[in-house]
Specification:
alpha/beta
């Protein structure tokens, strides 16, 4: 029996990164693929945890990704439309994940049975009625599960940046979108690169690492 979750993942679980254009110093906002009205509404209730407990909090898991069902190895490739600057930014983000030793991201083409991340570039201008925020990027997991004697589970993920806005090509954006691709969801911890409001974080928090281990290291 074959279960294809790709369309569901793209429509419901893809990450969209937005940047506020209010004020002199803009805030970078990473939200799920929802409307800007929903995004701004949620920001009003998503308050960060504080104190020592925050660093212990595990980052949530994308709902379609099941722990310890996926190989730790991902093959990644860049679309022909991706400019050199974006390639270099994503490669730096790849190095951040590889340094953990928990996942292994390797340049190359994956088979249908293997995990992959397809990096892409796109251009999307925000409509005038949503001009408060600019969309910087999007991405997420796409799980394919095949049952039976030769069954397998693979993640055919995507991560991209919106080249309509130059502020999208940032290392923090790249790390955030790869996080979604490998199964990390938004975190309430403001120390996490997966926190909805991007603060230029270019490292993985203790909570991010805890969840990566939960997803990819066998007990």
């Amino acid at each position: 029996m074959r279960k294809l979750w790709g369309l569901l993942a793209v429509l419901l679980l893809g990450s969209v990164m937005l940047v506020s254009v209010w004020g002199k110093f803009p805030k970078f906002v990473a939200m799920s693929e929802i409307t800007v009205a929903q995004a701004t509404s949620r920001l009003g209730v998503q308050l960060p945890m504080v104190g020592r407990e925050e660093s212990k909090r595990a980052t949530p898991v994308e709902s379609i990704v099941k722990p310890q069902t996926l190989s730790k190895t991902y093959y990644y490739r860049f679309g022909n439309e991706v400019p050199d600057k974006m390639v270099r930014t994503f490669e730096k983000a790849v190095a951040v994940y590889n340094e953990t030793g928990i996942v292994n991201l390797v340049a190359g083409d994956a088979t249908a049975h293997q995990n992959e991340i397809a990096f892409f570039a796109y251009s999307k201008e925000m409509p005038e009625d949503q001009s408060t925020y600019l969309e910087l990027g999007k991405g997420g997991p796409e799980i394919e599960e095949v049952t039976g004697f030769q069954g397998y589970t693979a993640n055919h993920a995507r991560a991209g940046m919106n080249l309509k806005y130059p502020q999208s090509v940032r290392l923090s954006v790249a790390i955030h979108e790869i996080g979604h691709a490998v199964g990390l969801d938004h975190s309430h911890s403001h120390n996490s690169v997966m926190y909805p409001i991007d603060q230029g974080t270019t490292h993985l928090s203790a909570g991010d690492l805890k969840t990566l281990r939960h997803l990819y290291q066998k007990a």
